[in-house]
Each structure stands twice: as structure tokens, then as C-alpha cells.
Amino acid sequence: MFCAKCGTRLEDSEKFCPNCGTPTAEPEGQSEQSAPAAESEKQSEQPAPAANPVQQAAPAAKPAKKKTGRIVIGVVLAGIAVVLAAAGTVVAVNFARINNFIHKTFQSPEDYYRYVEGKTLDEAVELDGEMYGLMLEQIQNAYNNSGSVIASVELADAGRDLLELSGLANVDLSWVESAYINYEYAVKDDKSGFGLSAGLNGDNIVSVNGAADMEEGQVYLQIPELNGTYMGFDLKDAMGRSYEDFAEATAKRRELFEALSKSLPEQKTFERLLEKYLNTALACVDEVELQSGVLEAEGIEQKCTVLKVYFDKDTLGDMFDAVLEEAKNDEQLQKAVADIAEAVDEGNGGDAYEDFLKELKDYRDDLKDAEDIDVVMTVYVDNKGNVAGREFETDDMAISYRMPENKKDFGLVYSVEVDGVSVSLTGSGKRSQDKIDGEFRLRYTGATILNITADDLDLATLKRGRLNGELEVTVGSGLGMVAHEVPGLSVLQKMKFILTSRTSDKSVEYILLVNYDGDDMGTLAVSAEKKGDVEVKVPDGKEVLDIAGAEDLQEWVDEIDWDEVVDTLQETDLPRSAVKAVEKIGETLRENDLTELLEMLQYFGGYYGGSYFDDSYNDDYFDDYFGDSYNDDYYDDYYDDYYNDGGSYYDDYYDDSYYDDYYNDYYYDDYYNDDYY
Q: What pLDDT, on the 0 to 100 scale, is given for residue 171?
């Protein structure tokens, strides 16, 4: 069948032409079978078209109508899709609000509170899990790690002027512009190493490299600017008998860390256990009031759902009982407790879990005997189901956290008050996702101690214990009320500190700018980085001189090229007086033998720290004489008999007669009170 208007082929079931929209109903008396023939006859009776370009082009317009119709349908379908997508986006964006509304409307206050607190617990479990994971990593890598720390100071003009005025033991320091210390370390099993370098005004002045082999009891030191050879020390000889105790303590500590690294549960296990028992305790909350309210802080207000949660002795007891019941058959927790106990005290893991449960039961019994407990917690919930504020109240303590938001503006109050003494952090600013800018005040019982301005402070990393952003800190006027007569307080009140912090799991960087009375004094920068597993190199015999003997130390000193040392220092910004001092030391060491000096040192070391004091004084003289004579015979008999038992002199004369009569009646009353004052 074909359309009577445009000739488009039609399906039998179609009621309208898909191309032009004409109804497909047939005229009366005409059958479907005769339609093509009638159309053919109609076309055959029409005269042939003239050879005219316009007339010849007319039939070509029919396909365009067909394409236009399909475009219209496509546009309609696309519009529907856009509407549905927009609706889905609106739902997705507002899902938290919709979900919160459903829980608040159709649940009891207790169930709604558990829903809200459950979201908070999820975040808390995640954060605690991350902190636990970092701790576990530190334990596992305690004897297999490396890193670096760099600290530097750069003085501004005002800082150099102040240093020049102050001086140091009549030493001219006006030439100092900057200084730095660079420390690198590495630990691998029983071996450790470090490198330390220090410089002034960008020039390296001195450096020290060190290594230790605790298993062999050897320590090595090198000062590259003086000598490329390592100085070797035998700890066993240097420390004597105390080295055995030191080595034993070091070995036990390493064994403990190795055992803990294997026995502590994995981070995911820790998170599962924490989540289980927090939710177990949370399920026991049975008294919650729900109402509407407004959360306010520093002039910023936010409409919230207010939940008042009541905890008493019975509720806390139910929490203990629920946790105990859950823990009885918790194989995962039992394994964790037993493994940790075994690591700390070998052979004690078998009974550890029973002891653990007994401790919980003892706490439960103590709670039964305790006085009545009444704790009220107020929770402020925003329209997404997030906690915007929280307050705790007991008879003698109050803790408050409030952070209302109005679009990008926020206010903040965090305070703790105990027995009338309060500490608070208050302020306001703007928030963009997890970044905030604002001004805050740290107060102690109402007195402003510090004024703090935050710029681009990252709240997400702050929750994880990492500070990222910029803080400007000045001393508040209230510090004098708290610190009273602290030396230099007036100087502190004129100072401003600007701290820029960038931290991550593996590195930290702090830059502190110090300003005094409007002038920049200088900058202190500290950075640290963890570098992971490295190989520790311990010098071999060819690189080491054992300087326990005078001859070896003299040999090490003789290898120093003092002329080269002095020439190198002259290329730095060190003052001529400092270079001359080093030059004088070199001349003195070249002209004198160290043997006599070392023999004298060895004599004093052996005499005072050796056999005479260890055997004679420490063991024989002090232990026997002072322990036996003074403790047993002299002190016990003399003090007990004379002062305590036979102490009529002290008891009667000093306490009663002398002090009472002399100080109270005669001397103080008459002389000091009446005559003197």
C-alpha cells in the first residue's frame, strides 16, 4: 500500500503516513488490491512532463520531506532523553537530601540517629584505618627505612641587623645571611648509616658521615673535609660491660618489632573489627528526641535537625553487654589479641583472650557499682544527613563543636570547659569543598591567646593529621593575663608568624616566616622525606683506622692536609678570624704529638670509669658501706631510735614547746605582728 499524497510505501498496520502524516483510510468502494492499478492508470493518463528544468526538479523534493519528518522525530526523542537525563542529574545531585528526608520521615528518632551516626562512623573507621595502616607500616619498616631532613634559615635585612646588634659572646655575626643543616639516614637490619652536613651563606662548611654495625659492635666516622679515612670505634671496648646490656636491649626491641609486624592484624581486618563493635554499641542507644532547630556560630546560622541523645548507666551497661556477647565467639578478634600477646610476651598468647574478656567484665562490674551517669549529647544534622555540630554535657564538663554553613560562608566554635576553665577556638570564613579561608581566635577562659588567619587550609588532610595550607599567627593581648611575667612577652606581642605547610604520607615541608613590628626578620624552612628501602654500606678495613690507640689517631691526624682545608675555607664567606682559628689548630696538631694527651685521657677514663670505681667504689665501698652501714645500722637505728622512738626532744621541745611557744606566742605574735609590721 502506498500513501495517496506522497507515494511513500506503507505497512498494512500503519494508519498515518510516516513521511507526510496523511491518514491511510481508503475511499469507499475502493479495495486495497485495486489501489496500485488505479494509481497506475492515473499516472498513465497524465501527459508527459515538458522538458523544463524546474518541472524536472519537482519530483526530487519528495525525499527531502521524508528526511525532514525523521529529523522531527529524532529531535523529539532527543528532547525526551535530555529531560530524562536532567531529571536523573537532579535526583543524583539531591540524592543525599532525598535519602536523608526518607530516613528522617519514616524512621523512629533512634533509628534515624543510628543512620546519621553510621555515616559518621564510616568516615571515622576510614580515618582510623589509615592511621593504623601508617603505624603498621612504621613498625614493619622500623629496621628497613631511610630518609632525609633539611633545615635552613635565611635572614632578611632586619634579621641581619638584629643579629649584628645582639652579637654572640663578642663574636661578629653580621656576615651571616643563611645557614643550613642536611641530615640523611638509613637503617637496614643491624646496620645503620647517616650523613650530616652544615653550611653558611650557601657554602658547605663541614660534613660528617657515619655508619654502625651493631652485630659487630663497630662505629665508623668520617669528616670528608679533613680526611677521607674513617675513624673506627669498638663499642665493646668503649662502653665496657654496659655494651652487653645495650646490645641486648637493642636486640629485644628489634625482635619485638619483627614479631608485632607479623602478628598485628591487617588494616582491612582492623577496620572490620572497629566497624563491627562501634555499630554493636551504637545499636544500644534507646532514648533519642528529634526536633527542628538552628545551629549558630559566629553569626552564621543553619537550619538543622536536632537530635538529643541520652546516655545513662543502663545504656552504657547495655553497650558493654552487647560488646561482650559479640566478642565471646569472635574468632577474628580472638586471633588478633592472642597474636599480639604472644608477640609481646612469648608463651602468653594462649590465655590472652580470656584475660581480655575478663578485663571487659571487670569494667562492666565497675560500671554497676558506679554512681548515676547522665550524659546528654546534642547532634545537629544538616539536610544531607551530615553532622554539622555536636555538644556533650555532664555535671562538670561541656564539649561543643559547631560549624554551620550558609552557602560558602561558615562559622566555627570548638570549646572544652572543665570546672569553670575553658579553652576555645572560634572564627568564621569561607569554604569551597574541603578548602577554607578564615580568621580564628584561640582563647583561654575568655582571654585571646592567639589570632590565626587560615588561607587555603585543607580540611580533608587535616582530619588525617596532615597540615596543608597557610596559617598566619599573632600573639593575642590576652596572653599577658595567662602568662603574667613571662620574659620577652612584649617582644612576642609584636611578632607575626606565617607558616606554609605542604605534607603527604611520605614527605613534609614547613616554611615559617617571622615578622617583627612590620619588618620581615627571616625564614625558617624544614623538610623531611621518607625514601624507603636502601642498602647500608659499612666501611671495610682498608678505609678504616681504629683510633682506640694513640698511634692510629695520630696517623689519622697526620693524613689531614691542613693547607688544603684552610684554602677551601678561605673561598667561603667565613670571617678571617674563623679561618685563622682553624689554621692555628692545624699548626698545633702538626707540631705536637697526641700520644701524651691520649694517655692522659685513657688514664682518667680507666681510673674513673674503670676497675677502681666499678669494683672498689661501686661494688665494695658504696654497696657495703652506704647500703649496710647507713641503711641498716646507722640510718635505721639512729633516725628510728632518736627521732621517732626516743624523740622526746623533737616531739616535746620543737613541736610543742619550742615552735608553739616561741614562734606563735612570743616571737611572731609580739615582734612581727605588733612591733615589726
A: 67
